[in-house]
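Could you please consider the sequence and fold appended to this message?
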Amino acid sequence: MTPRFAKLTPPAGEAIAYGPAGIRVPTRPIVPFIRGDGIGPEIWEATRAAVEAAVAQAYGDGRALVWFEVYAGAAAAAVYGPNVVLPDDSLAAIRHYKAAIKGPVETPVGGGIRSVNVALRQALDLYANVRPVRYLPGLPSPLKAPEKVDLVIFRENTEDVYAGIEWAAGSPEAQALIAHLNQHYLAGREPLSPEAAIGLKPMTRRACERLVRRAVAFALAAGYPSVTLVHKGNIMKFTEGGFVEWGYELARAEFGERTLTRAELTGALPSGKVLIKDRIADAMFQDLILHPEEHAVVATTNLNGDYLSDAAAALVGGLGFAAGANLGDELAVFEAVHGTAPDLACRDVANPSSLILTAYELLRHLGWTEAAELLLGALRTVIGKGWVTADVACWLPNVVPLSCSEFAASVVEEIRAAGA
């Protein structure tokens, strides 16, 4: 049954559903979308044109995405009233229709929550933040061989600093907790200063296990050779250390016949198997630069994943070419990972590539692989010809930048040419 909305009217179409065999996608699925703030509306229109061209080229009249606009961020406050930055309507629509796509959103001052993006993930229990990182030839990179970067980062999306609790330095709460710790847990050790600020980072076995489960299942299904558990367990023994310990145990218990650890591996990795290994977070940053080909799928905690995913994106062109997905068991919200860039808004100069690549992940999620590959292929071709927006052109010699709309038109032209 379609939910009743306060200020939304769904279009004619069908909802994605899940059954024993997994996702079921109709020929005209309704997909909620959030334009976003700042440059959001411009990059959304560019992305929409490219996606619709790819779907039409791949399937003719046989399939189509039915877009359903919902709201978050500043645009939501304009529709629902001051301080309403994540309306119940939007959450209900995503819950019902199962998959959505969004541009970057801002959290207006006085909104009552720290981040619209974080609130959305937590409200819908989108526990896996997934960031594919791949190089598109023609993009500037600090690496000599950026084509070696081909990995997918799974970042835990609900705990760690996202669920963090903190107290300001000198506050009664911080001083009471410090006094309690000094008296009962730190006897004989260096006491905590009563002037310290205090923060907690809760991490549970359940949340860590379901993140690792998702990463290992993905690696097996997609044919990736390894899953690297990234952590700081050498320092934080029971949170970060718990993550890596629980990750190994989960892989052994649920995927034991199809996974190996380094200790179990002798010689080459057998076909159809996935190597489970771990890396301390600071060493992983070095690996990303020196030996990126050694890592295929990465599973990590919230804060480590935040750092790693942005650092990895910097190696292949920056956040303007980073796709993002927030996944739950039956819900998915695909999002551009960069900010709203309000200084560029309404100037037709923004780079829509992040949202286009995010739409590619949406199409793959739906199982519409023909359209997805048309979209990615066209983007590769356009960039390979040096047809890029100003944020990239400034790093390349003798390149005249395209506007956002011109870039989108070039992608659409390549899609149509590929199917001619």
